[in-house]
Input
Amino acid sequence: MLTGIAAVAGLLFTGISTYYGSRTARDQLEQSVQDANVSDSRQAEQVTVWPRREKNGGAGLVLTNRSPAPVSDVYLRISAIPGASDRNAEPVHLGPALSIRALAPCSTVFLPASVIRAELGPVWTPDTALEARTLWFRDAQGRRWRREPTGELEGGWISPEEARRSHSNQWHAALRKQVTGARPVEHCGSDA
Output
């Protein structure tokens, strides 16, 4: 009888310890998945674009890669907002994106509205302002990312049609000049 009670107690103890062991393992697995997701997006979170006012009243865009690794296949869809000197003009949403083959690590590029002057034609004025609509890029591991105007970052990619029609820095002289003149960025690799 004592042996039976000991066997039942042993089984009960084994069952309880197995339950808690599997629960701990599941929690550790969930934490590992969360850590992997954070690690996956760490570089992508350091690639940003924002407007910067110019002295003439317009605004250009600042594209920055604060990570210590390059990003590639950068596409930027923009809108051009006519300045006060052209009151009748409507905002122009450029269908073809600007395309930059690679953005160096720890670098920042300024894109003034004059870079897209030819695409805007008569709508362009010196006080034209640019707004970023969507930013796409590949991180150093080849993962594709999309950043929306709200700043939200998620996996995603530009449509093949828009990518084919993009204005690349390989043959767009004004864009190439700006990308070539990329400046180093402070606090590279930091969240500061």
About this structure: The mean pLDDT is 83. The CA atoms of residues 136 and 146 lie 4 Å apart.
